[in-house]
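Course assignment 3, question 2. Fill in each field.
Student: A.L.
Task: Predict the tertiary structure for the chain below.
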Amino acid sequence: MELFLLTLLGLVLGSFISAITYRIPRGLGFIKGRSFCDNCKKSLSWFDNIPLFSFLWYRGNSRCCNQKISIRYPLIEIASVLGIIFLYPNFVLILLFLLTFSILIIDIEHQIIPDELSWLVLFFSLLSPISYPLFSSLFAGFFSSLLLLTLYLITRGKGMGLGDVKLSIALGMWLGVEKSMTWLMTAFIIGGIVAGVLLLLKRANLKTKIAFGPFLIIAFWIVLLI
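Answer field:
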């Protein structure tokens, strides 16, 4: 029963993440307004919005225009379920997962990191009982952001963006000084490996822009949980 409820919660929250990661980068309100079809823009009924079930029921097609529904929706919902089940019953980490997962999706799809999401991560790091003492957290955030800001200035924004700098403040405050150093090293290693693979597969070249935020987030969770 508990697993069923967690799965249900994960699907609902995953559906919400799908919505906000679609709407925020496009400047659309995510509190007001009904959901609509990505293809024909018609409003969707409640039956069209049942997480995962609607996608499977309509075999991946939109009921209103019979166009393909993006696979991003069921993938986000399934990933949300797995994340919540894995982190339960630590609701602080579940909330952090939902926020960072949203940032990861937006940065991959649009190469932007919304300030409001980074500041929410920062806000909860100040309130979290699992974060480090305030001075250590502040210093870690300052150290992390200063390093990335330096790289941003040296590369003139080509190596990373200011969104990465702001995100590093929030994530660094969760980890403390020692773990922040390991975290940043891990992020650069993962980023280098991914970039190398993309170059070898000719899916990218030296001028291709690759979002760095996802590497920061993946490395953050590796360091936090190990």
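Instructor remarks: The chain has a mean pLDDT of 90. Helices lie at 2-23, 53-57, 72-87, 91-110, 115-127, 134-154, 162-200, 213-225.
Grade: pending
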